[in-house]
Amino acid sequence: MRQVLLVTFRVIVLALWALVPAAACSAGGPSAGADRGYAAPIAGVGSEAAEALNALQAKEDALRQRASRATGDAELIKLDSLSRRIVDDVDKLVETSLQPELERTHAQLDLLGAAPVAGAMPETPAVAQQRDVLTAQQARLGAQLRQARSIKGDLANVDAQIGRLLHEHLKDQLALRTDSILSTAFWTPMVHPEAADYQSLRALGKQVEKQMQSMWQPGRFLATTILLLAAVVCATVGASLLERTLGWVCVRRLPEGRLRRSAFAISTVLATLATTVVAIHLVGVAIGGRQSLSPALQTFTDELVKHIVNCALILALGRAFLCTEHPTWRLPAIADPVAQALRSFPRTLAALLLFSGAIEQINRAVDTSLQITIFTRGLVALIVALAIGASLLHANRVRTALAAAGNSPEGRSTVAGLIHAAVCVVVVGALAALVFGYISVARFLTYELVWFYIVLCSLYFLVMLTRDVCESIFLPTHASGNTIKHLFGLEDAHLAQISTVLTGVFRSTLIVAAVVALLTGGLGTTPADLIDSILEVLGGDRLRALNIVPAHIFSAVLTAGVGIYLVRSVRKWLDRELLPKTEMSPGMRASLLTLFANIGYVLVILQSLAVLGVRWHNLAWIVSALSVGIGFGLQEIVKNFISGLILLAERPVKVGDMISIAGIEGDIRRISVRATQIQLADKSTVIVPNSQLISQNVRNVTMGNTTQGIASLVLTFALDVDPEQVRDILLDAYRDHPSVLAHPAPSVMFSQLTPEGITLTVTGHVRSPRIAADTKSELLFAILKRLRGADIPLSNPRTVLIHAPRGCLPNGLGAAGGGPHHSSSSSAGTTSVSANTRKIASSVEA
């Protein structure tokens, strides 16, 4: 029935629209004239709005150009005010013209309905023309609305740019001198404000009052009350319950150790921040409701919310740092009386900053004059400086009282003392700047001091947390450490090393982030702003030139880790599976493994740099620096590196060879790219640079014949012995020794005949050069035993002592300096007395 009535109503409307042009035609006027009379007003709808939008667009373009050329604070403040007026004009145009006209056009189109489908009852040309005109009007109004939104978005970007420029100019104009806080002119704006400032404040007050009235409308009274009560409960009771819950989790669920204390401190901060954010959100829902805020009020609330979160962070960090409710869980070494004395400081500082920050945000929202702005800044600096100074004096009095009582208040480090002294200097400097009229300097110092407090406390807690987390995860007695140990086959020492390295990496990263925050941030900086600043510092011009993207760093690290694991796995497989099944010698296998590992690591480094996005044609500055470094200090390293590659390629010596170089004789145990390790007979190791093995004479004992060694002895006998009998004794001793090979057979060579005796050299081959020394020792024992059994002595050295009056000996034979005697000795196996000496001895005896 309802559908029938709707169809009937539509038919009636269509009939009435059809009668209008018919009546006009019967009156003698053409129907087109009537159509044009209808279409003309429709076509004119929105033309004025279009012109207004074009004018606002032109203003926005001019504002952007002026902002890019602005150099002074006054000009930037004017541009900021102009931008806000343009936004207000855009909102007014949308609310009063575009949006109502679009809704009216849409309603008319709904009244006409959709165009008839094929086969249905046709409609009159006037209705079709009307539908077309309304459709075009709707599209035009939609485009104008989109243009208005685009202008607002561009103006928001301009406002952000102006804000950044104002912040930079504030830093540049810190030396601006105004009235001192001791003068009457400084306090005049509080008693006699300017008329423009008064009107601006009243306008903002009316907006706030209007918004408050919308909150307590009869239909929203109950919802607003519930939301505000929920916000209060969340900020008070909810914060306490959440903090206790997180504390219980830290005590009961976390492993024993220092991790519980650091996690408890972080949980205190997180509980306060979380409940504050939730409470702010509830208040925002209660205030906003269905009615949107004006641009000025919206900017004021956004900045005020940031300031409230910062104040909550100050309170949370102070409570966690002092930890007066649980002294045994306190992280820093602060005496309990000192902590109790500073207990109210975080709450007082947060409240004062909230009050002063709200005043500053009101000034920014209403664009107050320079005089009241300076007054507000001076008031804020005075409040913050006095609060910090009073807390320092109170804490120092408590420490002095403890020291006078003979109690050590706390074990303060040098860094803590320096920080305390720096804070005192800054507070005194801020108060002095206020007295001498440098209000901007005082405000800058106090706000930077508060920002330093936030950054330093956050850094301290995060460093402690990361250290304790790493130690707990990799502790062998904990479940996590035991799992990692058995999963990767690590030792306890390896877990300790990993924990130390990760702690150092996290600490360095946090310190870098803190330094960036101190240099580029300030009070009111959000975590997103801080992350952007860190990424901007990390992605500087030089890194951009190398095409390093921070997002690729993780991929590069993962690629390096996987590549190193693959190289080590393949190397282990070659060492244990493939190469032992070949006919290669152990030295050859070791050389191939070392060469494979070096090439593999180089390829992994190159691939990691490629994933990181490094462009090799931009590494000219690195190559230049390396060239200079090689020329001055790295030439020895490069020379040893090249020598190592030559040793691995040509293999003049290899792992397992027995070599002798510069008086060092031993077995090669390892050849790396820089040095070679040689193990001596006493199991000690000598590290020889590879360049020496290339540039010096090296004796490779095992290179030509790796299976045999030579045990050779040189013995000197008296002239009256039978050489053939001695030869037989020596050969029998060699033949009877089990280490001497039968082929080639041992041999005896008559080496020398001198007045002191005859010298015989006996030689035998053993199965390895490494047992030649031990074989020589055993052969000497056996030969001496056989010679004594045959009553054949060796030629032993003799010492002749000659006593004679001074001047009786020939020239050159007396003791040095005219001494009373002369002694002479010879080496083993030879006679030490020469022919002249024997003659002199005979004459002395006669």
Short description:
The protein is an alpha+beta fold and 846 residues long.
Q: Tell me what portion of residues adopts beta-strand conformation.
A: 5-15%
Q: Which structural class do you get from the secondary structure elements?
A: alpha+beta
Q: Report the strand count.
A: 10
Number of H- or I-type helical stretches: 26
- Assembly context of the chains: single chain
The main sheet orders its strands as: 4-3-2-1-5
Helix content: 55-70%
Roughly how many Å apart are the termini?
167 Å
Label the overall shape: elongated
Rounded Rg: 49 Å
- Overall pLDDT metric: 76
Unreliable spans are: 1-45, 798-846
Task: Tally the structural domains.
Answer: 6
Please outline the major beta sheet: 5 strands, antiparallel
Organism: Paraburkholderia youngii
Family: Belongs to the MscS (TC 1.A.23) family.
Signal peptide: 1-26
Main location: membrane
Describe the protein in words.
The protein is of the alpha+beta class and 846 residues long. It has six domains: 2-172, no CATH class; 184-400, no CATH class; 550-618, no CATH class; 629-705, SH3 type barrels; 709-789, Alpha-Beta Plaits; 796-846, no CATH class. It has helices spanning 2-26, 31-44, 47-69, 73-112, 125-172, 184-191, 195-215, 221-253, 258-288, 295-322, 336-341, 345-366, 370-404, 414-436, 439-473, 479-488, 492-520, 527-538, 541-545, 553-578, 586-612, 620-650, 690-695, 723-736, 772-789, 835-845; strands at residues 658-661, 664-671, 675-679, 685-689, 699-700, 709-717, 747-754, 757-766, 802-803, 821-822. The strands form three sheets. It has a five-stranded antiparallel beta sheet with strand order 4-3-2-1-5. A three-stranded antiparallel beta sheet has the order 6-8-7. Strands 9-10 form a two-stranded antiparallel ribbon. Strand 3 and strand 4 form a beta hairpin. It is elongated.
